[in-house]
Please model this.
Amino acid sequence: MDMWHGLVCVAVLFAAEIGAITVIGQDVTVAAGDDALLFCQLVETTEPLTSVIWQRQTKEKATNTDFFAVTSDGKEEHINGLRDRVKFTGNILRLNGSILLSNVTALDEGIYTCIFSIFPSGPYKTEIRLTVLVPPVVSVSTDVPPVAGDAEEILATCTAANAKPAAEVLWSLGALSDSVKVQTNVTVDSEGRFTVKSSLIGVASKDLNQKKVQCLVTHPGLKGKLELNYTLIIHYPPEVVYIISAGDQGKACEFQCEADANPKPTNFIWSRHFPVKEPLSSGVNSCQLTPDSNGLYYCVVSNQYGKAVGSLYVHVTSTESTACWILFIIALLVGVLVMIQCPLYLQNRTRRVDVWVVQTSLLGPYLAVVEGLILLTVSFFPGT
Model:
């Protein structure tokens, strides 16, 4: 008899548990800036509903605070400033008290309590945890431009800042994977936001300048993997100085001084002596030379990291040919103007270039006559 009595008691308790009035809900995780649907529903009751009240507890406000209420007749009340950010999406007749919280921020993270009041049983509630994912603010940079040398230094840093939870930061290095290494540092602030800094460490050299790398960032608050392309910038002093011809400026020849450096050279000094004693010009990268300027020239270029020098030996000559005058006289006889620019001889270091520039007007049908007159004149003036 006692055994059957015990079985009846267990059956009654199990039935009561199955039929208990319950508020169901589910935790929510959203990214900052998105909307959060907070689902809440009362089940296993036929008692009339009087109201639904929402409270929340956040890091900013450690105690439960009412922020929204809706009565059985559908009248809504917004409390404590959330106002238009809260929209009732439930159905009073179906005992659904769900709300939509729009434009969620990190300050909205916390515990939300949904409370149903029914008569005569009283209030029933459930707690819903809202987790807000804060995507990182990502950048790639160098605090101080690396300078070519022998010591290891930071070549670039990829930063994924102020994220919840911490972001994952990786590098795609291609051919540079064997010449640089990666160093990662993670910090967290008082608000629980993580900053990840991943730095490329290596010996800065001219060869690394303008090399391409890629920073890869993943985070649950991002729609996909973030890929940031970056070009390494290495500073170095001038190494090789080039002196090139910039063409003729009338009777003068102009030369330009160029150098391989980063940043580009900021100062150019031309001189006849090295070390420089009496500069010919300063601050410009060109120098004009005439036939009176024959000799050795130096161009000293510099930026904030150093200087380099290049040299050029110039020999300029200017002559006139008697044949020029003969041709000019004959051209006058046939009414045609002939202009001749005399030879220019330049010697740039060990290279010699002989340039003859002859500009003539078109002789047209008289060209054969002119050629015959030239030969005739030469025969009459064999000494020319």
Q: What stands out?
A: The first strand starts at residue 22 and ends at 25. The helical segments are 2-18, 322-333, 367-380. The chain has four domains: 2-133, 137-231, 241-314, 322-380. The radius of gyration is 44 Å.
